[in-house]
From TrEMBL:
Protein name: AEC family transporter
Principal location: membrane
Entry's localization field: Cell membrane
Keywords per UniProt: Cell membrane, Membrane, Transmembrane, Transmembrane helix, Transport
Family membership: Belongs to the auxin efflux carrier (TC 2.A.69) family.
One Pfam short name: Mem_trans
Domain of life: Bacteria
Segments crossing the lipid bilayer: 32-53, 65-87, 167-187, 199-218, 230-250, 256-277, 289-309
UniProt organism field: Rhizobium skierniewicense
UniProt signal peptide: none
């Protein structure tokens, strides 16, 4: 367990440093704008491009892996949606954000750095596939359900066009497509270009984790929703357990791929859940509370997941 604590210390330490900086310096939330722009449009795309470009093309075609991973994620989504909409009689919009809070993990900011630290370069491909295709699916699901709830006033044709454009032009998606083409052609970028990509990729995890800590500091805990009592356990415990059961039962995958998917499923609620809630003015404060609480608790739950993975020799 000591080696796992040593592995996670710099990771969660960067989040904590960002949190302290956000509380001490009192900078406004807008001050994070350019850092987040750098992370989303430069650093993380460079990391995904680098990971995919160096991967054998046959490994990049494992859509069965992505499909089973998505099955686990959206099984949790469906379960929480039934609890919120059918059992608790929440609105369609509230139930949608609650379901995302329990199934949409912080795979973009936390996933690549943690998986590569834990499992090495062999985790590169499953990380890139899950992050990009799961985010793309969420980008489609959220506006579609919000349109049904009446929170999105765009016409169906306009909505479909905007969603398609958002998915196809997202930096993560474009970087993976670029990396796929480079891998397909077995092309080696010129050394200066490769050095730039490496330089940007190395900055992705530290910047993303620091930014995440600052974001948590700027969204203080104002109210703790009762839904947290089942949303957080679903995200931190049930989601990774279900991911393991599905991927180990219905596929033939490298154990590192399974371990990577389980680890990504164990990550806390994504900050994008708050962004979606803010966009549609639904469940905003409670989404923020869920992100903060799940992130704090994930220090212990992610440690436990890694311990179980090591103990089972996945």
């Amino acid at each position: 367990m000591a080696d796992i604590a040593g592995l996670l210390f710099p990771f969660f330490g960067l989040i904590f440093i960002g949190y302290v900086a956000g509380r001490v310096t009192k900078q406004p939330a807008e001050a994070l704008g350019w850092l987040n722009t750098f992370i989303i449009y430069a650093a993380l795309p460079a990391l995904f491009f680098k990971l995919v470009a160096k991967t054998p093309i046959d490994q990049l075609a494992r859509m069965d892996f992505v499909g089973l991973s998505l099955l686990g994620t959206y099984s949790i989504f469906a379960l929480l949606f039934v609890i919120g909409y059918v059992i608790r009689r929440n609105s369609l919009a509230d139930s949608t954000i609650q379901s995302f809070a329990g199934s949409y993990g912080n795979i973009g900011y936390m996933g690549p750095g943690l998986a590569l630290l834990a499992f090495g370069d062999r985790a590169a491909v499953p990380v890139a596939l899950i992050v990009c295709l799961e985010n793309a699916t969420h980008f489609i699901t959220a506006p579609a359900l919000m349109a049904l709830a009446g929170g999105d006033k765009r016409s169906p044709l306009k909505l479909a066009g905007d969603v398609t454009k958002k998915v196809l032009t997202h930096p993560f998606i474009l970087s993976v497509i670029g990396g796929f083409l480079v891998a397909l052609m077995s092309w080696q970028p010129p050394q200066p270009v490769q050095q730039l990509v490496d330089y940007l990729a190395q900055s992705a995890a530290p910047c993303a984790l620091f930014s995440m800590g600052v974001t948590l500091a700027l969204r203080p805990l104002k109210r703790v929703p009762v839904e947290i009592s089942y949303i957080v356990p679903a995200k931190l415990i049930l989601h990774p357990l279900l991911a393991y059961i599905i991927l180990s039962s219905f596929g033939s995958f490298d154990p590192v791929w399974i371990s990577t998917a389980v680890l990504l499923a164990a990550l806390p609620t994504a900050t994008n859940v708050f962004v979606i809630g803010q966009q549609y003015e639904v469940w905003q404060e409670r989404a923020s509370a869920t992100i903060l609480i799940s992130t704090v608790l994930s220090v212990f739950s992610v440690s436990l997941v890694l311990y179980v993975i090591r103990a089972m020799s996945l």
